Automatic annotation (TrEMBL), chain A:
Main location: membrane
Region (Disordered): 1-25
Source species taxonomy: Bacteria, Bacillati, Actinomycetota, Actinomycetes, Streptosporangiales
Name of the protein in its database record: Peptide ABC transporter permease
GO cellular component, one term: plasma membrane
Pfam family of the protein (one): BPD_transp_1
TrEMBL record, chain B:
Ranges where the ABC transporter domain occurs: 22-274, 376-626
Organism: Marinitenerispora sediminis
InterPro entries: AAA+_ATPase, ABC_transp_ATP-bind, ABC_transporter-like_ATP-bd, ABC_transporter-like_CS, Oligopep_ABC_C, P-loop_NTPase
Protein name: Peptide ABC transporter ATP-binding protein
GO molecular function: ATP binding; ATP hydrolysis activity
Keywords per UniProt: ATP-binding, Nucleotide-binding, Transport
Length: 307, 708
């Protein structure tokens, strides 16, 4: 971030006035400190980090490899041998859940971030410039909105199957940004009439800088809440696609495909369902905690902010 | 009065004719804090008595508890507020009554006029029905037809033309002034004994304010009610009320007759308040008396006198205990100051006790106007907004003539005040100048370069020379940026060397009277006046030559406003700035401006030297405007005759033919038919007046007239 780098230079540069001057911390470091002071954020980040750590370290610790099958134990409940039990084909549920969570974490977080960034940029540019820019961008948005995204994904997926999961993330993001973009556009139209935006314009700040410096940060609470919701909706979209066989494909697993698998026997063999679902709930909860705390940290008028 | 028997016979109304109608004793209001915050002591011991037909003014700055104390008297505070003390109406205790019992009293014996007439009427019922409801709610037996007739009568009483037809109008069809009239009609519907007016004219333009004050006087005459007038405007109080109660930090600090309080002020706060008001009737531009500091937080008050931290006469004993209201001088005059007797004995005035800031002499004051460089030239500027209709196929159904051919120029080191009521096009003019785009017609020349004919680079260079300060200190600073970044933004944009950035920002903060340590904080942590100073620091960062000020002090309290006005005065002299100052407050303009342009419906009606215009205005609108402004001087105010304009501002989409002001013009009414024809047919242009050096008016029958 060039702004914070610039700020850092200001802070560390030798002050010609001497010792009576107070340090001027940058905006982002202030936000960071504020964030770390909020217990929810620390808890949320801790949870996400913990889940990530477990999902990557777990398979290494587990005695079973991802592809292994225990032909002596089909659909066995948790035991010292298989910590989370086994599934219909004798796979160790602990191992596949951890691998599944890796995928879900990456897909969910990445898709949410891409969605929100795309929505913020499209919406704010359309709302700030209006006129032709707005017409074109909103036409694209409306088009994307009326396309049956599920079908398109289903049709496109076989063609892109070989390209890896990154393409899948991009596709998920490409069909989730429209509603947010419309909201952002509306907010931009009202924000651009604010006097501090006018002041920036009349001092000659270029439009794109105004958008990134004044408009988008002042919608950050909306964007953060939106990104948080998007994490869970991306994971759920991935689930349903995987359920129908378009998402994460058979040898690969994700929390979504595991839930789909376990849902069928949730009552009779709960361990095939409970662990992956529980982890999904914890994951979404952790993301929400971070989102909440971030919103407070970014909003100086927020009640829970204490200086 | 033709109305039915609505006068409630209070228990002792007949026995003691001089008994107070409303008696408030030792009223305290506390808002308990949520969570770990501190309780807010909004009102701390207010006592007053109101006799029949008396008008009591309660003045104070925002947060002084003046509104809360009367809301408490009406029982209109939220339930969690803790109210103690006593409020007696005709001897009957109101505190502690439940809502149903209070509802019988409210609107019948005691009623209220609120500040915001926009939200006080229900948009889905007609104005007349709402009025009739107010009548019927306290007289359920009254037939509907009679209630409607009474509503029409009330509407006529408050000066609504065509009352029968307007009865069926909805609130949105009424202007702000008309709605406030309806509110007053509603307040007097049941012949109350007390009417509480909470800033009834603050949201209105001055000419409308004058109308509303007239209506309130009518209401008082008709109902014989006592009025509590809550306001921050010391001018309104001077001419309207009998007694004044000055409040500070939730406590009354001075109480007395208007003359005592204005001429024999015994409390330093009141003195400061009176000294900080820019005066319409003073020609000399002595610096105003600002009260240093800001009002204390009501949740964390100092132990002694709450005014002690800001008081120029502070002594040790001031910080130990809060002084009670004690009698000084006349029998009815009380002040809460330990040194009141000393002030009394020495007959000190604001000028004696407050340090008056030194404002450097303007070096260029001697240079004649013609020899100075033209900084801004506006020639025949128009801005018309099309009125569109239709969803799919938009068609033009009309034009709003927001700005319709105005011309003026500003020379170096000169302040031009642009005044007018809301909707006259003054802000549109500013935005047109600042946009630097080609105007729809006419020319805007900024520092010798014509708008709309500039390349990107030239335009960027012009931006450096022209900066703006906005009205609302809440929204003019990005709430998510620390002050340092806000002030550094123009510097960064225009490539100020990075090493010097910090020292420049600190220098600017000191220049506007803030501390460098403030740079780390966010705008939300500052008071309104401080934010406005930050806005000024930002505008000055690039050392502009022209500063455009859009109502920079109208959102501030008077004591804070004085500091900002002095600052602007000082900066102009020190930095050699030129100002284009837009305001609706003519007193501020008189204090700051060298020249004035008065706008009405998108046109300039009078322009010229400030003393020429204020001394002898020639256009009937300027005369009415000046006459409508109350002066904070009771004797002068009583002896003045106000010109009260009729009606509201016409719709700018459909301005009257010929002279735009003729529909409201007091001069037009006195003219003969032949003379009137000229006003109807011919639009007057600004013509220099004979015998005046710098004074022009756009009236066919311009005639200078002394008013102040």
């Amino acid at each position: 971030m060039s702004m914070s780098a610039e700020r850092a230079a200001v802070v560390t540069g030798p002050g010609p006035e001497g010792g009576d001057e107070t340090r001027v911390p940058g905006r982002w470091s202030a936000v960071g400190r504020q964030m770390l002071r909020t217990r929810r954020v620390v808890l949320g980040i801790g949870l996400i980090a913990g889940l990530a750590a477990v999902s990557w370290i777990g398979p290494l610790v587990s005695p079973w490899e991802f592809g292994d099958r225990d032909f002596a134990a089909f659909l066995q409940p948790p035991s010292p041998d298989h910590w989370f039990g086994t599934d219909n084909t004798g796979r160790d549920i602990f191992t596949i859940t951890m691998v599944g969570m890796q995928k879900s974490l990456i897909i969910g977080l990445l898709a949410a971030v891409i969605t929100t960034v795309l929505a913020a940029i499209v919406g704010s540019f359309a709302g700030y410039f209006l006129g032709a820019t707005d017409k074109v961008l909103m036409w694209i948005t409306d088009l994307a909105l009326v396309l049956p995204s599920f079908l398109i994904l289903a049709i496109l997926y076989p063609a892109l199957r070989g390209q890896g999961w990154l393409i899948f993330v991009l596709l998920l993001a490409a069909f989730a940004w429209m509603v947010t973009a419309k909201m952002v556009r509306g907010m931009t139209i009202s924000l651009k009439e604010r006097e501090y935006v006018l002041a920036a314009r009349y001092m000659g700040v270029p439009a794109w800088k105004i958008i990134f410096r004044h408009i988008i940060p002042n919608m950050s609470s909306l964007l953060i809440v939106d990104a948080t919701i998007n994490v869970s909706s991306a994971i759920i979209a991935e689930t349903s696609l995987s359920y129908f066989g378009f998402g994460v494909q058979a040898p690969d697993v994700s929390l979504g495909s595991l839930i789909a698998l376990g849902a069928r026997q949730a009552v009779t063999h709960p361990w095939t369902f409970v662990f992956c679902t529980g982890l999904l709930v914890i994951l979404v909860l952790a993301v929400n905690l971070v989102g909440d705390g971030l919103r407070d940290a970014l909003d100086p008028q927020s009640k829970s902010r204490r200086i | 009065m033709t109305s039915t028997e609505t006068q409630p016979a209070g228990p002792d109304a007949g026995s003691a004719p001089d008994a107070p109608v409303l008696e408030v004793t030792d009223l305290h209001v506390t808002f308990p804090a949520a969570g770990q915050g501190r309780d807010v002591h909004a009102v701390r011991g207010v006592s007053y008595q109101l006799r029949r037909g008396e008008i009591l003014g309660i003045v104070g700055e925002s947060g002084s508890g003046k509104s809360v104390s009367s809301l408490a008297a009406m029982g209109l505070l939220p339930e969690y507020a803790e109210v103690t003390g006593s409020v007696r109406l005709h001897g009957r205790e109101l505190l502690g009554l439940d809502d149903r019992q209070l509802a019988k009293v409210r609107g019948r014996t005691i009623s209220m006029v609120f500040q915001d007439p926009l939200s006080a009427l229900t948009p889905v019922y007609t104005v007349g029905d709402q009025l009739a409801e107010a009548v019927r709610v306290h007289n359920p037996d009254l037939p509907k037809a009679q209630a409607a007739a009474r509503a029409v009568e009330l509407l006529r009483l408050v000066g609504i033309p065509n009352a029968e037809q307007r009865y069926r109008a909805f609130p949105h069809e009424f202007s702000g002034g008309m709605r406030q009239r309806v509110m007053i009609a509603m307040a007097m519907a049941n012949d109350p004994d007390v009417i509480i007016c909470d800033e009834p004219t603050t949201a209105l333009d001055v000419t409308i304010q004058a109308q509303i004050l007239e209506v309130l006087k009518t209401a008082q005459r008709e109902t014989g009610a006592a009025i509590v007038m809550i306001t921050h405007d010391l001018g309104v109080v001077a001419g309207f009320v009998d007694r004044v109660l000055v409040m500070y930090a939730g406590r009354p600090v001075e109480l007395g007759t208007v003359d005592d309080v204005y001429y024999r002020t015994r409390m330093p706060y009141t003195m400061g308040l009176l000294g900080s008001v820019p005066r319409l009737d003073f020609q000399d531009k002595a610096p105003l008396v600002p009260i240093k500091g800001t009002p204390p937080s009501l949740s964390d008050l100092p132990p002694g006198c709450p005014f002690a931290p800001r008081c120029p006469l502070v002594r040790e004993e001031c910080t130990t205990g809060e002084p009670p209201l004690v009698r000084v001088g006349a029998e009815t005059h009380q002040a809460a100051c330990v040194r009141a007797a000393e002030i009394e004995a020495n007959e000190w005035t604001a000028a004696d006790i407050y340090p008056v800031p030194e404002i450097p002499e303007d070096a260029a004051a001697g240079t004649p106007r013609e020899d100075r460089e033209v900084v801004l030239e506006v020639d025949d500027l128009i801005k018309h907004h099309p009125l569109m209709k239709g969803a799919v196929f938009k068609r033009r159904v009309g034009t709003v003539y927001a700005v319709d051919g105005i011309s003026f120029d500003i020379r170096e080191r000169e302040t031009l005040g642009l005044v007018g009521e809301s909707g006259c096009g003054k802000s549109t003019t500013l935005m047109e100048i600042l946009s630097l785009n080609a105007p729809q017609r006419g020319r805007v020349v900024v520092l010798g370069r014509e708008s709309g004919r500039l390349g990107w680079r030239d335009r960027f260079a012009v931006r450096r020379e022209v900066q703006v300060v906005f009205q609302d200190p809440m929204s003019s600073l990005d709430p998510r940026m620390p002050v340092f970044d806000i002030i550094a933004e123009p510097l960064r944009t225009h490539g100020h060397p990075r090493e010097a950035l910090r020292s420049r920002v600190h220098e600017l903060l000191r220049l506007v009277g803030l501390e460098p340590a403030h740079a780390t904080r966010y705008p939300a942590e500052f008071s309104g006046g401080q934010r406005q100073r930050i806005g000024i620091a930002r505008a000055l960062a690039l050392e502009p030559r022209l500063l455009v000020l859009d109502e920079p002090v109208s959102a501030l309290d008077v004591s804070i406003q004085a500091g900002v006005i002095n600052l602007l005065d000082e900066l102009k002299a020190r930095l050699g700035l030129s100002y284009l100052f837009v305001a609706h407050d003519l007193s501020v303009i008189r204090h700051l401006a060298d020249r004035v342009a008065v706008m009405y419906l998108g046109r300039i009606v009078e322009i010229g030297d400030v003393d020429a215009i204020y001394g002898a205005p020639a256009h009937p609108y300027t005369q009415a405007l000046l006459s409508a402004i109350p002066i904070p001087d009771p004797e002068k105010e009583r002896s003045r005759t106000h010109i009260v304009l009729e009606g509201d501002l016409p719709n700018p989409a459909n301005p009257p033919s010929g002279c735009r002001f003729r529909t409201r013009c007091q001069k037009f009414r006195q003219l003969g038919d032949d003379e009137r024809q000229r006003c109807l047919d011919e639009e007057p242009a600004v013509i220099p007046l004979a015998g005046a050096a710098d004074h022009g008016a756009a009236c066919h029958y311009a005639e200078e007239r002394e008013l102040l």
